[in-house]
Design a protein that fits this description.
209 residues; Rossmann fold; Arc Repressor Mutant, subunit A; 2 domains; five-stranded parallel beta sheet; 52% helix; globular; DNA-binding; transcription; two-component regulatory system; transcription regulation; CheY-like_superfamily
Length: 209
């Protein structure tokens, strides 16, 4: 039996994923968490072979949580689950140590395949991610400015470009508005821009939103 733990701050999405996984007779969901704090507590007692981790977590984003899990529970196989386009986070996730990446907008049954694949010791790649990897090997892309951003800075850029106010971003990420303002300032400096309008245009041009 494959023991799976779900970590997603949206209860409805967790329920949908759990219902999908329970259709497989060889998979059981042993615990659920809505935050990194809850996940830490659950991993102390719950059996976990595979962790399905949402990349957009409040307080700490999924890639930061991934790094922590890799340090404390290196035996756990992690599949990042996200609504973000594969071309922005899939390769980052794999480079950070995830065994797979699945998009919430895809076929729910792919999650069962993903769990079985990583449990078998292989990486789980969607056709889109596999094509991206092949393209990057055949013709390495020139570095783009936003690759210099930290995960939190990139997250802030995407939310600003999506039209969210700093106060809304702060509330969603469980950070202070002042902290989000610091991230915004760093993004502007690194991208050599001066306004949200420029950030939005950049994000659209580089398919970040």
């Amino acid at each position: 039996m494959i023991h799976v733990v779900l970590c997603d701050d949206h209860a409805v999405l967790r329920r949908g994923i759990r219902d999908t996984l329970t259709e497989a007779t060889d998979i059981t969901v042993t615990a659920e968490a809505a935050s990194y704090a809850e996940l830490r507590e659950q991993l102390r007692t719950a059996a976990c072979d595979v962790l399905l981790l949402d990349i957009n977590m409040p307080g700490r984003n999924g890639l930061e949580v991934l790094a922590s899990v890799r340090e404390t529970h290196p035996e756990i196989r992690v599949i990042m689950v996200s609504m973000y386009p594969e071309d922005q986070y899939a390769l980052r996730s794999l480079k950070a140590g995830a065994q797979g990446y699945a998009n919430k907008a895809g076929d729910p049954m792919q999650l069962i395949e993903a769990v079985r694949t990583v449990m078998g010791g292989r990486k789980y790649l969607t056709a889109e991610v596999a094509q991206m990897l092949a393209d990057s090997l055949a013709q390495p892309a020139a570095p783009v400015p936003h690759e210099a951003l930290s995960e939190r800075e990139l997250q802030t850029l995407i939310k600003i470009a999506s039209g969210q106010r700093l106060t809304d971003i702060a509330q969603e990420l469980m950070l202070s508005p002042k902290t989000v303002s610091v991230y915004r300032a760093r993004v502007l400096e690194k991208l050599q821009m001066s306004s949200n309008a420029e950030l939005t245009a950049y994000a659209i041009r580089n398919h970040l939103i």
